[in-house]
Design brief:
Layout (H helix, E strand, L loop, with lengths): L7 H15 L6 H8 L13 H25 L5 H12 L4 H12 L3 H23 L5 H17 L12 H13 L5
Helix pairs in contact: 1-2, 1-3, 1-5, 3-4, 3-5, 3-6, 4-8, 5-6, 6-7, 7-8
């Protein structure tokens, strides 16, 4: 009896973890096989080559960071701020954030990845526009608030500044109130 094949999803997940920790050059079939404790022969039962794996990895990243977030956010109870906060937590979770950052770095060197990133970020912005558009009728203001919300969600991870007597979470919550509510909160 032959050993069971390593599931396709495990190859994709191992590739995403390698990408997050070492960038696209770290995604090597031989290294992934070692990580998975299998031979590289099983890889070719699922993928024609490394490029096919890279494409599957981007598909999974997009699915998890946009489609799954939209699905979970749409069934989320609560007001727009709670839904937006939930979406940000899912999108930039401890699992997805390192992958997202690695994709952003990779996109600087690969135009096809940059195209994918633009599509993903555009879909994320569309979600914010819809959310903010429910309370902000001026399209330019809604766009600006959406941009600021997205930048705050992504950029807060890089900011090392202290916030006086407030925690980062308190400041981000207040920022969300300012961006997601019309007029004074």
């Amino acid at each position: 009896m032959s050993p069971a094949r390593t599931a396709r999803g495990r190859w994709v997940e191992a590739g995403l973890q390698a990408l997050a920790s070492g960038g696209p050059d770290a995604v090597r079939v031989e290294a992934l096989a070692r990580t998975l404790g299998v031979t590289k022969g099983g890889f070719y039962g699922y993928f024609a080559d490394r490029d096919a794996l890279l494409s599957a990895m981007l598909d999974r990243w997009e699915q998890e960071s946009v489609d799954d977030v939209l699905t979970q956010t749409q069934v989320q109870d609560g007001d727009r701020q709670e839904r937006a906060t939930h979406a940000a937590r899912l999108t930039f979770s401890p699992r997805l954030l390192p992958i997202d950052l690695a994709v952003r770095t990779w996109a600087q060197q690969d135009e096809s990845v940059a195209d994918r990133l633009r599509r993903v970020d555009s879909r994320r912005m569309e979600m914010l526009r819809e959310l903010i558009g429910t309370v902000c009728r001026d399209p330019l203001e809604a766009e600006a608030r959406s941009l600021l919300a997205f930048c705050a969600a992504l950029g807060a991870r890089f900011l090392a500044a202290r916030h006086g007597s407030w925690s980062r979470d308190e400041v981000l919550e207040r920022a969300a109130q300012l961006l997601l509510n019309p007029g004074p909160p």
